[in-house]
Amino acid sequence: MDVRERRAGKRITGSVTFGTRGRLGEDFVSSVEYDYLLWVMVTAYALHIVEEYQYNWRAWATSTLHLDVDWRDFYLTNGCVIVLGISAAMIGWRAPWLSLTFPALALINAVFFHILPTIRTRVFSPGLVTAVLLFLPISGWVYYGAYRDGVATVSSVSLSVVGGALLMAYPIVLLLTKGRFDS
C-alpha cells in the first residue's frame, strides 16, 4: 500500500516519504510535503545577508544599535546562521522544535533588528527589504507547512521560538561582553 492509499485518497504531489518504526514496533509510512520550505528559508537568509553586506549593515549597527561590530563578526555570525539553516533543512520534521528555530530566528531578526529599529529611528536598516519581503512571509509559510504536516505542536512551536530568541541573543551577548575576559 502506498502513501496515496494510506491517506484515504488525499491527493499528494511532490511529497517525500520515509519509513519509520512506531513506538510499538509497527511499520508506518509518514508523508512530508512541506519541509522543503526550510530550504527556501536558507535561500532567503542568504539573500538577506547579501543585502546587509551591500548596504553596510556594520556601519548602521554601530551607529544605530551602538554595537561594537566589525566585518569579521558579521562574516562569522552569518556563516554560523547559514550552517544552522542547512542543518535545520536537513533535519526537517524529524525534530520540528529544532528545525523551526531557523524561521523563528529569521522572524525575530526581521522584527527586532530591522522593522522596529527602522520605525523607531526613521533610519533605513540594511536588511529591511528582505526582512519584510522574504523573512515574514517565508517564515509564516514554513510554520504553516509544519502545521499542515502535523508537526507544529504547541511544544515544538514554543521551543522553536525560545530557541530562535536564544540564538539571536547569543552573538549580541558576545559582542556586548567582547574583551571583558582578555588577560
How many helical elements?
8
Give the overall average pLDDT: 87
Q: Which H/E pattern describes the elements?
A: HEEHHHHHHH
Structural class: mainly alpha
Count of beta strands: 2
**Whole-number count of domains:** 2
Adjacency order of strands in the biggest sheet = 1-2
Using the CA coordinates, give the radius of gyration. Answer: 19 Å
Poorly predicted regions are 1-29
Helix percent band = 55-70%
Give the strand content.
Answer: 5-15%
Largest sheet: 2 strands, antiparallel
Calculate the terminal CA-CA distance, rounded to whole Å: 66 Å
Q: Give the overall silhouette.
A: globular
Description of the molecule:
The protein is mainly α and about 180 residues long. The chain folds into two domains: about 1-35, no CATH class; about 35-175, no CATH class. It contains eight helices and two strands. A two-stranded antiparallel ribbon has the order 1-2. A hairpin with a 5-residue loop joins strand 1 (about 15-20) and strand 2 (about 25-30). Helix 2 runs antiparallel to helix 4 (about 70-90), helix 2 runs antiparallel to helix 7 (about 130-150) and helix 6 (about 100-120) packs antiparallel against helix 7. The longest helix has 24 residues, at about 155-175. Residues about 1-30 have low confidence and may be disordered.
